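Our consortium's second objective concerns turning raw sequence data into structural hypotheses that experimental partners can test. To show how far this objective has progressed, the report includes one record in full. It was chosen at random from the queue rather than selected for favorable results. The single chain below, 189 residues long, was entered without modification.
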Amino acid sequence: VVGTYLVEERDGRREFTFRQGPVFAHLVLADEVNRATPKTQSALLEAMQEHQVTAGGKTFPLPDPFVVLATINPIEMEGTYPLPEAQLDRFLLKVLVPGPSPAEIEAILDRTTGAAVPQARRVLDGERVRAMRALAREVPLGSRVRAWIARLVAATRPDAKEAGPLVKRYVRYGASARAAQALALGGKH
């Protein structure tokens, strides 16, 4: 995922050269990330948190923007490694995708079983994404919205006075300050 060092010969000498792995992209799809080993998950966690990776004791910055889309298979749990809370906390959103309707299944069949090979096309470049992200950060967050987010996040913590009886009974860990940031930024975007 991160990359590796390769031995290359140059001018009659052997030297190690770092070859970037697939994580060095603007958009990384980690399909069924719960099937990745803990070591791979840890490398992805560093990339998501620090926007850099470490290999062979050296640090390499990742491109900006850097976005990770990850899927998990909630049905098959055998042979999987559950994501630690610290990693789950790095994702802005968790979207539960229901099964497709019959009409959607037909559309899937039309796009994937014919002779035409589906091609992804670029719709944005990194500069445009950075500009949109900067613009979203300029949207003011009203004091009432900020207070609502703070109360909502606090109410998810079982030890907080804002927590209701169900939270106190069934929740082990509540939302973090990072969750409050995600709510604010998600609302702005």
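The partners drew two points from this record. The helical segments are 38-50, 85-88, 102-112, 126-138, 143-154, 165-170, 177-188. The chain has two domains: 3-138, 139-189. Both points have been shared with the crystallography group to help prioritize constructs.
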